[in-house]
Specification:
Bound molecules: (2S,3S)-3-hydroxy-2-methylbutanoyl-COA
Structural class: alpha/beta
Radius of gyration: 29 Å
Number of helices: 29
Mean pLDDT: 96
Strand content: 5-15%
Number of strands: 20
Low-confidence stretches: none
Largest sheet: 8 strands, mixed
Length: 706
């Protein structure tokens, strides 16, 4: 029987009495309009063909269906809608089987839920992750899901957005059959033929009865609402999800579907949806750097780390977790022992929490070795230097690496500030030197700035990206400048915060405003966590080159002079009695600020939360524009991903540059020009921002493929 193409992405073929409907819409079989039309047409074919006794829906390629086509959101909807396609499938007069492999996510799982029977191979992943995009399941997931698996299980899946394994899905009742092999088509066909032979009836999920225990269902909804109220930190869609699932308890199916649709469209209109979908695509676009397109990565089977301090040990853990053998170099035995202890401390902590066994730790540590001689690095594929942040010290390390490492080894530095071109130039192989800027704790923080010096070869940069993939990090390509992308922009908006503090805003009000904006912490809490001594050392290092005309707020220096570095000294901007992690406002700090204002001749004034955030974000966005303008970041989305994964920027706002587009660049520029009236030296509008406003464009216009 020849294939009958209902659309270029959906094909049908009758195999015996089963009509096999194959979705083939690379890369992930997203439910774009052509797929929706193809599926609806396939149901018509099935019903019209008397030789068809059952229908089997499968996906071609790596996945079943990864959901609605996210790129269609925000654009004018094209019929049929996915809810219509799902009810078409559910109302098919012949049994419909969904055979799942790879991902069945969002609308993909909703298509499967509208089928009458579901099978999944053991490697399949099933979930309703719409909440991660600021949405809710908009094609029956909130109505069919609870009816099939109960309110509690459905709310857990939908509110977490997590992917359930096929095994768990089977246990939940989300699927009826767990495939033995990995061939969904073969397993699905056998299952459909078995159903036909057994004259299995059409079984609509809308009629499933897992909500029968109304008391338990009610309790699940109430518990989820209470928990979400505490945890959702201003997110829009979680409460809409609960409202939709609650409707499944109380309303007839069709009315529940209508309410789900209404709530779904409210989520579509929320700016959080735009921010979260931007983040989804941006974290995939950052992988597409000129070097990753132009070159293949080098071998990456073994690694060396120079330096066993906090960063060196964290990087070693990340590499051990990724399955790599790691050799750590330290200058002497005690330092090496300290380095090993830092690494072991991470795993001992996991064992204590019951998240690792001593055997697993032993297996990991078996791939860890330490040495004092650089000769131990002669055969490794990549070395990451993580020693004290001093140029002379780093050059000495690279001279040793240049002497011992094999040809083709990648020589990386974890410097956060120093000039990598100068470090590279100190070796005979500058083409092999690259910056790999990890963030502390390096085994936890996802961001990895891949810093590209002038002479580096493309395959070395591509190797940096490959390492990021191996370590499950999010890589962002950055050019060489003081602070690269993240720390350079941080330095500027941190200054803006200091200016506001000296002008009258309390550091505690500034932190509160930043938290209300969606950050986990404000700038003064962050500096207390990181330790004020690091910033102090940087300010002292820069004192000789600082522009004497530039405003310099000395308040933090006053605290550092007293040894108040933050959590590690039980006080900084906040007091941390008995090592508490949450600080208390400190009246002595407020007194010091008062004194500094008098010394600087400043009459304090009031700041509203709105003004605090406009200044804070204007400083961040303006410097972000400079970083893009100077080619340090490839696109505005690279700045966004840097701040989402390295600086706690609230994901639902999409990143600073996306946020600026949401506010409108003319407004941001107007704010900067307003602020420049008091301080024209600090508030110099970025030429890129001015140019974009003049041509009526936004930052998104520079994110090509978006
Ligand atoms: N729509 C459009 N493009 C998508 C897509 C989607 N749903 N999913 C992935 N892509 C693109 C992605 O941008 C990338 O493109 C390529 O596919 C490979 O993806 C009505 C409202 C499925 C687990 O949230 O989680 O259904 O960069 O690099 O690592 O209720 O993609 O190559 O150009 O991630 O193998 C709900 C999102 C949608 C799932 C595969 N679904 N996708 O991971 O590949 S909302 C999701 C994923 C919805 C309904 C609602 C992952 C994956 P490019 P990749 P991967």
């Amino acid at each position: 029987m020849a294939f009958d193409a209902l659309s270029e992405v959906v094909k049908t073929e009758r195999q015996g009495g089963v009509l096999v409907v194959t979705i083939n819409n690379p890369p992930v079989n997203a439910l774009g309009v052509a797929v929706r039309r193809g599926l609806a047409a396939a149901m018509d074919v099935a019903e019209a063909d008397s030789a068809v006794a059952a229908v089997l829906i499968v996906g071609a390629g790596r996945n079943f269906i990864a959901g609605a086509d996210i790129r269609e959101f925000g654009k004018p909807p094209q019929p049929p809608s996915l809810p219509e396609v799902c009810s078409r499938i559910e109302n098919c007069a012949k049994p419909v089987v969904a055979a799942i492999h790879g991902a069945a996510l969002g609308g993909g799982l909703e298509v499967a839920l509208s089928a009458h029977y579901r099978l999944a191979v053991s490697s399949a992943k099933l979930g309703l992750p719409e909440v991660l995009l600021g949405l809710l399941p908009g094609s029956g997931g909130t109505q069919r899901g609870p009816r099939l698996i109960g309110a509690k299980a459905a709310l857990d899946l939908i509110l977490s957005g997590r992917h359930a394994s096929a095994k768990e899905a089977f246990a939940l009742g989300l699927i009826d059959r767990l495939g033995e092999g990995q061939d969904a088509l073969a397993e699905g066909l056998a299952y459909a033929q078995e159903l036909v032979a057994g004259q299995a009836p059409v079984r609509r999920t809308r009629d499933a009865a897992a909500l029968a225990d109304t008391e338990a269902s009610r309790a699940a909804v109430d518990a989820a609402r209470a928990d979400t109220a505490k945890k959702s930190r201003g997110l829009f869609s979680p409460m809409k999800i609960i409202e939709a699932v609650e409707a499944a308890l109380a309303l007839p199916f069709d009315e529940g579907m209508a309410l789900e649709r209404k709530l779904f469209l409210q989520c579509i209109d929320s700016p959080q949806r735009a921010g979260l979908i931007h983040a989804f695509f941006a974290e995939r676009e950052v992988l597409k750097a000129p070097e990753t397109k132009a070159a293949k990565p080098r071998q990456l089977d073994s690694a060396g780390i120079v330096g066993g301090g906090t960063m060196g040990a964290g990087i070693a853990v990340a590499m051990l977790d990724a399955g790599m053998p790691v050799t750590m170099i330290e200058r002497d035995e005690p330092s090496l022992a300290r380095g090993r202890a830092h690494v072991e401390k991470v795993y001992d902590g996991l064992i204590k929490k019951g998240r690792m066994t001593p055997e697993a730790k032993a297996a990991l540590m078996a791939r860890f070795s330490g040495a004092m001689s650089y000769d131990a690095l002669a055969q490794v594929d990549i070395v990451v230097e993580a020693v004290f942040e001093d140029l002379a010290v780093k050059k000495a390390v690279f001279a040793e690496l240049d002497r011992v490492c094999k040809p083709g080894a990648v020589l990386a530095t974890n410097t956060s500030y120093l000039d990598i071109d100068e470090i590279a130039a100190s070796t005979s192989r500058p083409g092999d030197v690259v910056g790999l800027h990890f963030f502390s704790p390096a085994n936890i923080m996802k961001l990895l700035e891949i810093v590209v010096p002038a002479k580096v070869s493309a395959d070395v940069v591509a190797t940096g990206f490959e390492l990021a993939k191996k370590l499950k990090k999010v890589p962002v390509r950055a050019g060489v400048c003081d602070g690269f992308i993240g720390n350079r922009i941080l330095a500027v908006y941190r200054q803006a915060a200091d200016h506001m503090m000296e002008d009258g805003a309390s550091p505690y009000d500034i932190d509160a405003a930043v938290r209300n904006f969606g950050y986990p912490m404000g700038p003064f809490q962050v500096s207390d966590l990181a330790g004020g001594d690091i910033g102090w050392a940087t300010r002292k290092r820069k004192a000789t080159t600082r522009d004497p005309k530039a405003r310099y707020v000395q308040i933090t220096d006053r605290l550092c002079e007293r040894g108040w570095f933050g959590q590690k000294t039980q006080r900084g901007y906040y007091l941390y009695p008995e090592g508490a992690r949450t600080g208390q406002p400190d009246p002595e700090v407020l007194a010091i600020i008062e004194t500094e204002r008098e010394r600087a001749g400043i009459k304090p004034r009031a700041f509203t939360e709105d003004e605090i955030m406009r200044r804070y974000m204007a400083a961040m966005v303006n410097e972000g524009a400079n970083v893009v303008h100077q080619g340090i970041a490839l696109r505005p989305l690279d700045v966004d991903v840097t701040f989402l994964y390295g600086y706690g920027f609230p994901r639902h706002r999409g990143g600073p540059m996306k946020y600026a587009d949401t506010v409108g660049l003319p407004q941001v520029l107007a704010d900067i020009r307003e602020f420049a009236k008091q301080d024209p030296l600090f508030w110099q509008p970025s030429p890129l921002l001015v140019a974009l406003v003049e041509r009526g464009a936004d930052f998104a216009s520079l994110n090509q493929s978006e």
